[in-house]
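Whether sequence alone determines local backbone shape is best considered at the level of individual chains. When preparing material for the folding task, we compiled for one chain both its residues and its backbone structure tokens. No coordinates are needed to read the tokens, only the vocabulary itself. For completeness, the protein is quoted in full, as a sequence line and a line of structure tokens:
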Amino acid sequence: MILIILNITGLLGTLIWLLISPGWEPFVAVIGMITTLIVQLFGGGNNNLTKMSQKGGKNSINYQSNENITINN
């Protein structure tokens, strides 16, 4: 939700920029902000997150981490 609010704020800023100094740069920025907002609203959310699973054999220990891990013997 916070990303959508920030995107709308950025979109308003680029629209003001386009009104103050018309040109191709503010126009491209407005198109980019609109495209980003559409993707955020209708992109499907977090349905494509990576899922982790692991299997271990007999007499084994499984370590699972989302960061680097160091194991000392």
In short: Helices lie at 2-20, 24-42. The two ends are 45 Å apart (CA to CA). The longest helix spans residues 2-20.
